[in-house]
Amino acid sequence: MPNDLFSKNYFEIFEIPVAFDVDLSKVGDAYRELQKEVHPDKFVNESEQQRRIAMQLTSLINEALKTIEEPILRAQYLLKLKGIDMESDTDTSMDAAFLMEQMEFRETIAEVRGKDDPLHELDQMTAELKQKLKALTNDFQKHYSDSSLKQARDAIRKMQFIIKAQKEVDEISEQLEDELI
Amino acid sequence: MALLQIAEPGQSTRPHEHKLAVGIDLGTTNSLVATVRSGVTETLPDEDGNHLLPSIVRYTEDDVVVGFKAKVNSVDDPQNTIVSVKRLMGRGIEDLKTLGEQLPYQFVDSDSSVPKIKTVAGNKTAMEVSAEILKKLKQRSENTLGDELVGAVITVPAYFDDAQRQATKDAAKLANLKVLRLLNEPTAAAVAYGLDSAQEGVIAVYDLGGGTFDISILRLTKGVFEVLATGGDSALGGDDFDHAIAEWVITQSGIKNSELNSSSIRLLMQEACTAKEALSEIDEVELNIELGDNQKWFGLLNRETFNELVDPLIKKSLMSCRRALRDAKIDREDIHDVVMVGGSTRMLRVRELVGDFFLHEPLVSIDPDRVVAIGAATQANALAGNNPDGDMLLLDVLPLSLGIETMGGLTEKIIHRNTPIPVSRAQDFTTYKDGQTAMSIHVVQGERELVTDCRSLAKFELRGFPPQVAGAARIRVSFQVDADGLLHVTAREETSGVEAHVEVKPSYGLSDSEIETMLRDSMEHAVEDKGLRNLREMQVEADRVIEALDAAIADDGDSMLEADEKNSILEARAVLVDARANATDEQLVKQAMESLEKASANYVARRMNASVQTSMAGHKVEEFSSEESEK
Fold first, then answer.
1. How far is it, in rounded angstroms, from Cα B452 to Cα B411?
2. What is the ipTM of this complex?
3. What percent of chain B has pLDDT over 90?
4. Which chain A residue lies closest to B316 (C-alpha atoms)?
């Protein structure tokens, strides 16, 4: 078993360059090849210890895939490799204009239930949020490649807000679906 | 066996290289077992030719009856005849009260958190009852295949939580059956179709059974099955369609609800079910309802009206599909195929609407009742190592989020649903009081905000970490979910490095000692089962001996044997034939076989000499050694 995976970073695990731009289809192929090697199903008839290592390796690869696949997690992970750990960050200052815009957007979400075709409205919001997320992702990439890590971190923070808003949109969609059932 | 040693080189029976593994669909109503034989995956029938085994277990004072024979008694001996035990798996007494209907069994209070059903044969847990079904299927497989199983893949509904999965594993343990893997039913169905067509792309598995609906979205890439999302509705199934028709009949006929008793309701539901099935073949069905003297009604139900009745139910299932697609981050257009599972997908209207929704004609070529067992067998065969070239791999996801209880009875999710498994996550906790040396953690599973709306999996105590000021301790609790979707927990206090003592008490599972006791209890039966198998094996052996002897005598019996020698061999043969047919104890067959062996020992020796001389004549020794090494 490739035990050395335990000491690699997530990019190295899938043998791709440490960068924001990733070829996800290549990552998917590498992921599946690795799984074929380490998945516990390949060790059904082996010792308890072997099976435990297989389980841990598979867990690691799953975690790595999730991090690489999700742009925001990937961005955070890139900063972490540069020494900026956002999980233990205490400085949480935010751009006031952006915060204002977010609050307004939240209000729109809250009022969507009264609309004629709320599911359609929600679909449109999703499209809008997608676009914003894309712009912020571009910001992050620019700052990251310029090594302006603080600005890169701010872009991620904004992305977190957008993702949270998307989550609310999804939740309301689910609730409406439940009510329509 | 001496007589067999004279077989020509290359003709002797070689040890089994094919490891016997089966797939088991342990269903609510019926169960099935399937295996791969000579490259073909098929379900195995019992001696009467029935593939389905009704999941019904009846206890009598000195026996356990499973399947059709137990079904006969479900009406007149309901308290000892356990049906639909799957619905009780992994459930606590409190859950049983909320199952919504009157169960005919008497539950006994016990120290254990696991409810026990009172039967004439003693108190039985759901795991023990399920184990009887598994034992029956195991026995069927071993009888059919003639050897012991290395293990089984058992399927579970995708929505099964940790407690229900654990209960299924415990049942297998009680049945002395090694579980190679617990497999989600929809995944199994996809495997059944996937291997046939060796396709690539995203597929949806639409599973509509009698009482539950499941949807799974999977991606197939180069032999790897990835479950992207699962969803469903545990209270939607074919029975609801029958209900809808029955209610329509009641409205149309003016039969009053108050005049219906339980047997007339059952009759009405049967009529409804028949009408439902007929409407997949014909456009209009006659309903001739006769519930009593003054409750007769005749009417016609056409397909159009029928569709109006059932469409809301089918659309409800499509809402779950919509959600599963979103969870999987897949658009409808990206779906390559739709696999149909469960008896209710035989309904034309279901196929139509599902086809419209996914923009694809659904796949229906494999019997929707057998497709799960067939997929499970395929996976079992691969896991047993019978398919070294095939690199099929199933990557599953966690069906329901795992979380812990936080302040105010709220749930904090630690691992979200649809996360690929195995997966591990660690969470840090701290103390809230000075000098605190212990804390308790409550693990729950489910999507709801409130702990009381989720399923309680385990409560455990962390003890023995050094006293510190509040908030200083850092207790890291690691959650590990394995490939079967089962949770394991470990904990450690990080600042002191002390491994906290973890006491996991599964809320509705069995403790190891309980399993041990049950295993001991079931030993008596196991001895019987084992005796039967040994007898069967000995009988097969006897058949081989007799066959080999007959062939030898026909070949050279007259030339190599004196008349009295031949007679004593034939006498011993007759004793063995009798023992093989009538003995209930394998020892008698064995003794008869040994007597025959003794009687024919000289004959065997003579034949062997002759055989060696003939085959070596005109050959060199080297030729034999090279022949040997080629084998």
1. 9
2. 0.76
3. 26
4. A181
